[in-house]
Queue: 3 jobs
Job 1
Amino acid sequence: MPHDHASTRDSDPLAWPTGFRAYTGHGGLREHGDDISVVVSDRPATSAAMFTQSLFAGPAVVLSRVHAAGQKLRAVTTLANNANVATGRQGEENAAEVVRRVAGIVGVPQDEVLVGSTGVIGRPLPMDTIRAHFDETAQQGLAAFRATPLDVARAMMTTDTRPKTAVRTVGQARIVGVAKGVGMLEPNMATMLAYVFTDAELAPSDLDGALRTAVDHTFNCLSVDTDTSTSDTVAVIANGAAGPVDPTRFAEALADLCLDLTRQLASDGEGATKLLRVTVGGAGDPTQAKRIAKSVVNSPLVKTAVHGADPNWGRVLMAIGKNTDDTTIVPGKVTVSFGDIEVYPEEPEADTLDRLVALMRQDEVDIVITLGLGSAEATVYGCDLSADYVRVNADYTT
């Protein structure tokens, strides 16, 4: 059943941009709480989207790719707690039916609806309860659309411990983002599920370029466990209600918003207790910088050392050195620091150990590497590895 949410006011910093409205409700995908959400623009819009490159991309991704190609998406619906992946022809038909029903409720063409589905792989959607939910929502129509961005972010959650939202402004326009994801998280083009809505007016090419640049420097620099999801989707919808904005300023604001969401996702990684940020500078090119940084942030030994506040810099050298195909890296040119304390090649004095341990006990831990090869730099985001990660994923379906 759709839930009755208080209407958001224009003064609310987390209100939707002009022309957007949303609802959330319980469709039987999980035992309790809202698990279906819909966000829609009341006017035609321009859009851009990116999707997982997984060979097992789910029906929601396959269908949404086709719809997104028109760059005129107006609505996004998300089903939480069920990925609807590896469900065969029936899964494809179910995804199409969800889009058809949502399009009817909000009054837009089916090819202007994006559908996201996230959760357990290999289980069919509970279509009987979903149909009943949409039948009841259809009777209420848009009167049911009173959910806030925070409501939508909560309804998208699976093993997340908290909702992720962010807001920025560009001139008179606002940009509001919602995201979910804490595990099976190694973006390879996009990210778990992240949706951005704005009342800015932008040309399709400017919107698409801004999204791809933002994703490359934020969501694609994020990893919790090196595993790319079958359902990753990121999309931005711009309805132009606030009028045109400078494309460059919009791109900067979008990138900042995506970085905000990236940090929130990394900090809430399954079992995480700390945000881990790895910066590689002095690289020969940006690709090398990101590759080496991800090699470090994804290392289980580095992640467990961060969890235990153990300044074991030898594990960082290991993570760099295992890139054996990268023959341009020369150990004698490399430096490694934890925060502002260099640990290689100048090993810290014994009396510095307490400072290193204190630094690694903080909520955010920085590892800084220079390769001494050029001027390229990249920063990637991840988290520590705790016993809770094992517990969450060992019992995920049971």
Job 2
Amino acid sequence: MFKILIVAITLVFTCLFSSLAQQTAKNAPKREFRGVWVATVSNIDWPSRPGLSADQQKQELIGLLEKHKGNGMNAIILQVRPAADAFYAKSREPWSQWLMGKQGLAPAAGYDPLAFAIEEAHFRGMELHAWFNPYRATVSTNAVLSKDHMVVKRPDLFFTYAGKKQFDPGIPEVREYIIQVVLDVVKGYDIDGIHFDDYFYPYPVSGQTIKDANTFAQHPNGFTNVNDWRRNNVDLLIEQLDDSIHHYKKHVKFGISPFGIWRNLREDSLGSATNGLSNYSELYADSRKWVKEGWVDYINPQVYFSFTRKAAPFDTLVDWWSENTYGRHLYIGQAAYLMNQKMEAAWRLPNQIPDQIRYMRENNRVQGSVFFSSKSFSTVARATGDSLRLDLYKYPSLPPQMPWLDDIEPNIPLHLRAESRNDGIHLSWEHPLIAADGETASGYVIYRFEEGEHVAILNPKNILKISFLKYTTFIDTDVVSGKRYTYLVTALDRLKNESVASSPVGLAAH
């Protein structure tokens, strides 16, 4: 009887500790996508206004990255092509008007905003996804365009809707052009991902019609229904882009951030129990199909709704999307910009977004989220940033792995050494040997353990530094004299597969 009691007590404690371990994992997962959109259109997030000097732009961007790194983010979704223009030098399109104040006006010689952003993000252990708006060409009826803008050079490739110019997705040459624009960035920059937002065919405007009848007549592709034809036009672009991106760089992720509702249940038995505008019917974007066919590496629906939004509750849409991931990653778009707004009482509750994160973490088919947008964390969502920094994102996190692109981990970093000096503990190591897929290391994770702590790399609280650069040295300045520390280093490849840890090195700080 006594033995049975001991076994029972042991089982209770085992279950308790197992439960606590699972809760810890859910509260602070080591792998989670934590992104933020940085919008450049109309200077929403960066730069703060057109015409800043290169140094001013750089300082603003560094400040922005530091804030998001401090809040626990590990990915920046930077808008590099807001309206058939460019925030990067290696482009066939003119410089954006939101950079220097006039479309086509270059910034200072030698300054490439995208290249700078990539370097600074990678230094901080943050991915950089280049965000394109594929079809939008102007954002206003009175846009002043450069002579090199495609609307000026090739007006036959566009239609006008609600006074704005948009590439006509039904023209084969348009699709090929957009693919080449994207590939300029894939080939020319060390990006981690290509990202499309929710603007495909235009959002409906009362009294407006899409003027693509002639295109439909010239390029029907076997379709007789114009709605199906439009959806197919978008499908063709997505499928061809997926193939083209991974042909040139297998490690570059391709993701899309559609409007939050694919189809409503009343429209389709496969749809969500919602009532609202849908990707499928209004925007001619069959977002579920892109995931099902494996044309995207991640889907990032904009679920900009609260738990109490009757037409489209947050939890209803998260659950629906999680049941339609087909093995691809699901990141939920979260509306930081709605915090403390008056349109709905739920957004004035400080726990709205933290509770959304907790809800997503209970679902192992959700791998993270992306917040719109950067500026919100300096204005209406400051308290949300505090919740991330102090609680939910307290410990660093690596982006989740994508085994369908690469499941080969790098080899172990070599010869980790540590030396205690007056300014801290100096670490150095050597690059690992080449792995089976030809990669060495594209970054490193440094772990630190205090005396008596279990030395293992599973717990993110022991992560001291994540870098997506190839530096092989680090100085730990946050040490206490006389205290003993143990360090490990692991290697990361481009898709954030992590190596086995190096042999531990322990020493006391001076």
Job 3
Amino acid sequence: MRRWLRANALSVTMFGAFLLFLVLQSVFGWQTRNEELTQYGLPPEAYLAYLGTGHFAEAVFENWESEFLQMGGYVLLTAYLVQRGSSESKPEQGSDRPDDHADHAKPDSPWPVHARGLALKVYRNSLSLALLLLFAGSFVGHLLGGTAEYNEQQALASGAAPVNAWQFLGTSDFWFQSMQNWQSEFLAVGVLVVLSIFLRQHGSPESKPVTAPHAMTGD
């Protein structure tokens, strides 16, 4: 077990932090929602019931949506675009790596490499495809959760008739929620791309070696 944890420490830490902060988000969101219900003279909601509300779903999927869009877009863009001096970029004059081609397959290469054809075509782009599919799923989750939350807020505030998901998609409220997250995600990645030109982090694969010149592109 100790050896397994050491070999998988990064992913275990990331997913552990994710679960911790998700639980904390749910607890504080539940408290916030009950404060709102109290203001309207309504009884507080049980914690488990809160987990099935639009309030919680909207908050969770709204953030997942932006994260997966950023990561999927970034993986795809780095395949075609370069940034001189950044450790996040492939070399300016770099072509495809030899090992990106099936002709350089090894005995222990993943099975789609040996299968060739459609399986290989999909596998060659499977990382960006998976991330963008996760974005699409999160987008739908945000839309459905947001619709439920929007309808409840409208009913509490003015007794307005509910809208369906397609109608909520056309509201400025939905797109305001999305854009406030999308812009911050691309800002963060852009800052990392540029800062990695001039700054270093010893031991991190996200950084160039400490002694590398600023003009060196890639890691």
